[in-house]
Design goal:
Blueprint (H helix, E strand, L loop, with lengths): L15 H20 L5 H5 L8 H28 L6
Amino acid sequence: MSNEAWLNGELDGFSPLARAAAHALVQAITDLERFAPHLSIAQLLKSPNNSSSVTFHLRHFALMMPAAHALVQTITDLERVAPHLST
């Protein structure tokens, strides 16, 4: 199995456009599950070169997941109805 989600094949139920966003979410979750559990508290809180800490990014990721899921669903829904819309 590849380290890159998009190389592991298609995701069922997603159009090509929505599939790219879905693969990005799968990749983010895979990376999170792979790397985050091994970080110490000090590593999670560290802000190297005055950048945001890992903790900040983990919180941001958790808060944006519902919106990202909704975006993928909206893209999928729009692609289903678009062929039926008249110009």
